[in-house]
Fold these 2 entries.
Entry 1:
Amino acid sequence: MPSELLERRPDIASAERHMASANAQIGVARAAYYPTIKLGISAGLEASDITKLLSWPSRFWSMGPTVSQTMFDGGLRKAQNAQVLALFDGTEASYRQTVLGAFKEVEDNVAVLRILAEEAQIQNDAVEAARQTVQSTINQYQAGIVGYPNVISAQTLELTSKITAIQILGRRMIAAVQLMKALGGGWSQEKISRY
């Protein structure tokens, strides 16, 4: 099955988003090495006498860039950079573990479905053989060859075989649901046919 089917799993999507967030934090930590540039504008009134405060010459304004750079931080930026790199490595490992766990779940459920399909086929053959045995035993009983307890034994065997077949069918349905859950909600035939 294509691995794209696993992209819908919420745990994989969450792990991927955590990894992308940690990757963005690397960029933030590296940006701390560069100077900060700000563009500022200021305006106001200034006068030596309060009566001249509202006159046109007392107005002023200024505009210009400000550049600042930390020259010495005692290794803080380097430590922060190492910290976010370690965080990214951890989230990357977590993402990989989540994806591998998802592949394992899918593979396990596919194997269970395959084994149960084989078991169901064998059990259906057993049910058919038990049905034929019941019919043969009823014919022998009607001919007077065997007693009724033999018919009851044959019917009990047939019923037991049918119950086992139904239990296998139930296990197959549970395994199919578990596979859909492992795939993140099932799959569509169009997506599979592309591969």
Entry 2:
Amino acid sequence: MNPTSHSKIEPEQPPIFLASGSAARQTLLKKAGLSFEILPANIDEYALLELHKAKAPTDKALILSCEKALAVSREKPGVLVIGSDQILCLGDKILNKARNRNDALEKLRILRGKTHRLVSGVAVARDGEILWQFTDTADLTMRDFDETFLHAYARIAGDALTDCAGAYQIEGAGAWLFSKIDGDYFTIMGMPLPALLGYLFDMQGIKP
């Protein structure tokens, strides 16, 4: 007589929303095998940064990440919401995305030959409450390139000039800009992914 087999029923995983329109963050989560929906948060990031301008960059990255997660979690009761943001700072100065190509070139002139820091934050919220938050930093040193190199880079960089805070995508042509990189790849991409997946797995029972 064959023993009766029992199939194991996995507990249902809670729905997950990403409160960001960032293509890079969406790609990171998709490649990691996470199932989620996208609902960019409607918050005024510049107003929040101005309100908290005296705070440290790590605090600012967390504030933006938390506010994104909270905003969507209030719209979508009962679901887990991931909020994430990144800040680029050169010393104590925060540099925002370039408005146009010329603005991007000027930003790259400021950054060349120097080390700047990327601060990436991530938070998880549910029903208007932050459940978890985390930040990580990476330090990137740009080559002291000349104008010929700068314009050659700009020709192939494309939308990265204005889509990214540093006017580069490290996974693309932006890799040419750097002589030294000290930090986690995912943090540079804009989300501390291992820490986030660790929280979802250990504390929420989320699996790929």
